[in-house]
Q: What sequence folds into this?
């Protein structure tokens, strides 16, 4: 074999391949780290832009709501002031309408009183005229009766003269004279009786006229009292109507404006805590995994007996290294009962002919919030996984 062998029967060509693979893996890891760093910066920038945008939206929404709150309150104030003005105008109108109604009621009441006064005056005038008429009639009757009485007396004297002129004497003369006197007495008695009857009728007529007048005056007095009661009742009704109209006007007053409480200003969204990708291994750290000629061949499979480099890296982590940056040929093969993704993969430090393992990803566990099962080495910052806390096992699939 060419190239002078090393230990374990590895040729120079095989060693060169492993060394080239080692360099290639480092370059890939560097590129992946740089890409991850750029991706982290982009994600951080985008998150900040989104946060600022959401904060601006929240501020604008708060300002719009505050503007609408003030606008609504100002409209309420305008409506309230307008209703107060309308209310006072309605009160003025109600007062004027009540005053007009009261004046009209007073006018009707005064007309009624005037009517009753005229009726009373007419009643008194009629009573006075009737009294004068009765007095005039009784006076005329008295004069007529006195005249007739005088005529009876004169006629009796004339008849007495005739009896004496006849020259009779004795018993016949006395008898004729007595007859004349008796006739005079009967005539005078009839006149006295007529005068007495007429005087009685006169007094009765005067009494009846007075009684009727008093009765009609009492009727007028009651009518006047009734008119007064009606006047008061009408005024009370007017007052009630005004009170009802005032209450109706008051009920139409808009509610007293009250500004809604100011909304709390929106809080800025907190800056999200982002986990920056760990620093990549330095060239000096990677140099520790440089292939040694004669240690890359022979030796059977298994996780603990894979290759010397794998053992060296594994010894750096309590638990198992599970950082995606240390892996390649990563394939999703399932999910554990608790929802943890399961992958098959190879370690970069094992080379292209290294064994294939099945386990999980430290980055997935961090995204799921399972930081309790993830650690980080202080020396190079690679993630490790404590499988004892998971329902996933780390195992070798192929060697």
A:
């Amino acid at each position: 074999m060419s190239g002078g062998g090393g230990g374990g029967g590895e040729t120079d060509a095989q060693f060169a391949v492993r060394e080239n693979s080692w360099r290639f893996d480092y370059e890939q890891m560097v590129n992946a780290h740089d890409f991850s760093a750029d991706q982290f910066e982009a994600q951080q920038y985008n998150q900040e832009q989104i946060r600022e945008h959401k904060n601006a939206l929240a501020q604008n929404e708060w300002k719009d709501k505050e503007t609408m709150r003030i606008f609504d309150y100002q409209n309420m104030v305008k409506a309230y002031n307008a209703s107060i003005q309308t209310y006072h105008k309605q009160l003025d109108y109600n007062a004027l309408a009540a005053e007009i109604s009261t004046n009209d009621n007073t006018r009707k009441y005064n007309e009624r009183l005037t009517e009753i006064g005229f009726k009373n005056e007419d009643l008194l005038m009629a009573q006075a005229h009737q009294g004068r008429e009765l007095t005039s009639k009784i006076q005329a009757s008295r004069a007529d009766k006195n005249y007739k009485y005088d005529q009876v007396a004169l006629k009796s004297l004339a008849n007495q003269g005739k009896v004496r002129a006849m020259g009779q004497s004795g018993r016949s003369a006395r008898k004729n004279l007595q007859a004349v006197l008796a006739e005079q007495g009967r005539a005078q008695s009839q006149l006295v009786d007529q005068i007495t009857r007429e005087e009685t009728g006169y007094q009765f007529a005067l009494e009846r006229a007075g009684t009727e007048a008093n009765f009609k005056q009492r009727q007028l007095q009651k009518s006047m009292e009734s008119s007064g009661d009606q006047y008061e009742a009408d005024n009370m009704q007017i007052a009630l109507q005004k009170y009802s109209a005032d209450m109706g006007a008051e009920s139409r007053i808009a509610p007293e404006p009250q500004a809604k409480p100011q909304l709390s200003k929106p809080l800025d969204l907190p800056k999200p805590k982002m986990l920056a990708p760990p620093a990549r291994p330095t060239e000096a750290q990677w140099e520790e995994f440089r292939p040694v000629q004669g240690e890359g061949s022979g030796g059977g499979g298994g996780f603990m007996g894979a290759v010397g480099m794998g053992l060296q890296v594994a010894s750096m982590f309590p638990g198992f290294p599970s950082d995606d940056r240390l892996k390649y040929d990563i394939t999703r093969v399932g999910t554990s009962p608790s929802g943890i993704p399961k992958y098959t993969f190879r370690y970069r430090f094992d080379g292209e002919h290294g064994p294939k393992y099945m386990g999980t990803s430290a980055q997935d566990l961090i995204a799921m919030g399972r930081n309790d099962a993830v650690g980080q080495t202080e020396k190079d910052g690679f993630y490790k996984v404590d499988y004892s806390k998971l329902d996933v096992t780390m195992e070798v699939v192929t060697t």
Observations:
- The first strand starts at residue 320 and ends at 321.
- The chain has a mean pLDDT of 82.
- The radius of gyration is 72 Å.
